[in-house]
Amino acid sequence: MGKEIERKFLLKNEQWRGLAEGTLYRQGYISTDENRAVRVRVIGEKGFLTIKGRQEKLLVRLEYEYEIPLADANELLDKLCDRPIIEKYRYKIPFAGMVWELDEFLGENAGLFVAEVELSHESQTVELPDWVGDEVTEDPRYLNVNLIQNPYNTWEK
Fold first, then answer.
1. What is the pLDDT of residues 96-138, one digit of tens each?
2. pLDDT single digits (tens) 62-80
3. Helices (H), 19-87
4. H-type helices in 24-133, by residue range?
5. What fold characterizes domain 3-154?
6. CA within 13 Å, CB half, 49
7. Catalytic residue numbers?
8. Which pLDDT score, from 0 to 100, does residue 58 have?
9. What end-to-end distance do the CA atoms of the chain give, in Å?
10. What residue segments make up the domains of the chain, in order of their start?
11. Using one digit for the tens of pLDDT, what is the confidence trace for 4-60?
12. How far apart are CA 82 and CA 97, in angstroms?
């Protein structure tokens, strides 16, 4: 059984820049009801289909991901996914024995930067890099699935 255990944070500065090269991600959602999300992603030259369950606990939910043909992923993004499609650069930055994934959003979510770290268990201690700011794990606005329904550029600043 696949499980995702992660924490999300905002950034407090740009000291992360130059620590990794970004990879363009395009992703969309076929289903976004409260019990599950079905996501399509194109990462570089690979396509993926991901099914995520409702959050079971604060940090934990079921997640299953499968590689699919790139042409299928692009067609699903173009024809079946809700709008807007999320586009972002993802930077994978090693720090203190963990890999941080920092997302720099584009398009309707431009200006949003979120760092997340996957954990092996819920009580795992995490050392924060100097560029990591406030934790937003419990704020549903920062879930990618919610950024298509309520893009960052529509938020009151």
1. 999 999 999 999 999 999 999 999 888 899 999 999 999 999 9
2. 889 999 999 999 999 999 9
3. 70-79
4. 70-79
5. Hypothetical Protein Pfu-838710-001 (2.40.320)
6. 15
7. 29
8. 59
9. 40
10. 3-154
11. 789 999 999 999 999 999 999 999 999 988 888 899 999 999 999 999 887 666 567
12. 37
With tokens 């050392």, the residue in question is 127
Q: What is the DSSP string of 35-101?
A: TEEEEEEEETTEEEEEEEEEESSSSEEEEEEEEE-HHHHHHHHHHTS-SSPEEEEEEEEEETTEEEE
Task: Provide Rg for the chain, Cα atoms.
Answer: 15
The pTM assigned to this predicted structure is 0.89
d(CA 137, CA 141): 10
DSSP 3-state of 13? coil
The token duo for 28 is 């969309």
